Structure formats: C-alpha cells, structure tokens
Amino acid sequence: MAMKETQKDGRPAGRPRGRGAGARRARGGTRDAEGAQAVPVSVLSRRSGVPIATIKYYIREGLIRSDQDPGAEGAQAVVDQVQLIRGLVHVVGLSIRQVRQILALVRDPELSPAALMTGATVTLPLTGPRAADVDEAELEGARAALAAVGFDDLPDAPYATQLLAAIALADECGIGLDAELLAAYAGAARACAAADFAHLPLDSPSRQTQAAVLGTVIYEPVLLGLRRLAHRELAGRLPSSSPREEAREEAREEDQKETQKEEGARHAQSE
Fold this sequence. Notes:
By secondary structure, the chain is mainly alpha-helical. Helix 4 crosses helix 10 and helix 6 packs across helix 10.
C-alpha cells in the first residue's frame, strides 16, 4: 500500500497550513492559558451587543484573552472587556497600541481605582493649543496661576501641558483668566471630579476604566453643553440693554412726559 506523502512539517501533502492560534481562537472563542475553551464568541456577541466579526478581530489582535471559566462571573468579565475595547476603538478612536496600554492597566491587580482612572485617561487624544505655540515665560505664568488655586503639583501628562498652554494663550489673546475666575473654574472642576469618582463602579476594573475613559470623552461635551445652557439661562435674567442704554431710555421717557405736560397745558389754555 502506498504511503501518503507528507510535507516537512508532518502535515499531509496538499493540506493548507492553518492561520495560527489567533485564527483558531477567533473561530471558537476566547481561551485560557492552557488553551481550553473559555467563553464562546457567540456568547460574547449576544451579551455585549458587539458583532461576532468585530470580536474575532479583537481576538486576532490579541486584545481579548481570558483566564476565567465560562460561568456567569467569568463570562461577564470578558463581556466587560469587549464593551470597553469597542468604546476605546470606535468611540474614542484609539489605536490598537493605545488600547493595549489601557488593557494592561485594567489587568493589573495592584492598581487602585484612582490610579487606574488616572493612568487610562493619560492615553486620551487631545485637541487645542499646544505648549509649543506659547512662550516659556507665559507657561510659567500659567503654572503660577494654577498653583494659586491649589494645583501646584502638575503631572507630566499631555492634558496638564495643554492646560498650561490654554491659560497662557488666553493671556496672549487679551482674555486672561483672573484669579477669581480661575478659582471658580477650579472649584467647579473639583466638584465634577468628586461626582465622577462617587459614581465609579467598584465591582469591575474594566467597568471602572470604561466609566473613566469613555466618560471623559462622552461627558466632556455634556459639561460644555450644560455650561452654555447656563450662560443662556443667566443671560435671560440679565437686563436686555446696557446701563448706558437704560439711562438713555429713561431720559427719553422723561422728555416724553415733559412734552405731554406742556401739550396738556397748551390745550387747557386754548380752551
């Protein structure tokens, strides 16, 4: 009987080489460290609302890995990670490399919720003025202004650098934030931060990161919108005209009254 031909790697001749462990995981689901089946992709898709094809992409990129069993708690932990990844990629617009950085924080059992939130938000993209757009002396002035309202220990983070640049740029444009206004802004920011931490879910690192990172991106437009609504509300309570215009209007009204009196007097004399 003729022997079957084999290739150098021992596979029967003509059998195509597999696409690797990532492809096998993508077809079946997440696997634990020993390669045992953990949470099926169909279960992840149904419970997370993320399409199967998208989850398979995450698996191929190595973003999803699980050492939990497919029980309720283990599956929910992976579902949380799937929803987090989708938000980071499709809502925030982070790259796969940035997502990996955040997931490394999520999977670090030594990090506190505060450290997790701080570390994750550092990776967020920023828009607005850059430090390179402002003179160093003006940046130092902005640093001193922040120290005056209690922020004297600024981290080496992009958002802190951008904050300094924005304050300095306001001075350049002639609309600088005086001490009273900056103190009001700082107080409002601390109140917002306290509310954020009070509403952090403490039962899951993935949910904490989801709330911290996605909340930063999604809630910031909420804060801006509320601020503008408050401006509109306050403007409705203010006088519709300036004090000078009001004085002119009062003078016109007095003139009209005097004119009416004179006309009344002349009419009485003519009778």
